[in-house]
């Protein structure tokens, strides 16, 4: 999301120069671009789940929790994809913009799930591979 932050600052200025239809198209493209960015991370979620399964971390409860968190992030994406529907051409531009704004919030929420679950899984994996004081 941080990569898009500068673009989001400029978006209102750019939108003021566009027609309503162009605004709706830009909003849809932004939502779908975020989706595509997250889809590119799906393999990372799977790989981390597999690593947590194979590598016995120091805390198996934490590892199980992180596997479920990663699976939850994947399920969040699947849920979003199954419920996303491009508005019909007959829907007003105002309603389209509202819909795309809500979808942007939802896909950004999925992105936060992706990030926090991956960060937490990496932390658990790193803690499990760190030498313990009893290994001396």
Question: What is the gist of this entry?
Answer:
With 136 residues, this protein is an all-alpha fold. It has five helices and no strands. The protein has one domain (20-129).
Q: From the helix content, strand content and strand pairing, which structural class follows?
A: mainly alpha
Indicate how many domains the architecture comprises: 1
Distance between the termini: 43 Å
Helix content: over 70%
Poorly predicted runs are none
How much β-strand is present in the residues?
under 5%
In angstroms, what is the radius of gyration?
20 Å
Question: What oligomeric state do these chains adopt?
Answer: single chain
Order of helices and strands: HHHHH
Folded structure, characterized:
This protein has 136 residues and is mostly helical. The protein has one domain. The protein is built from 5 helices and no strands. The protein has helices at residues 5-15, 20-39, 42-54, 60-83, 93-129. The protein is elongated, with a radius of gyration of 20 Å. The N and C termini lie far apart (43 Å). The relative contact order is 0.17. The model has no long low-confidence stretch (mean pLDDT 86).
How do the helices and strands line up, and which of them pair or pack?
Layout: H1 5-15, H2 20-39, H3 42-54, H4 60-83, H5 93-129
Helix pairs in contact: 2-5, 3-4, 3-5, 4-5
Structural descriptors:
136 residues; mainly alpha; elongated
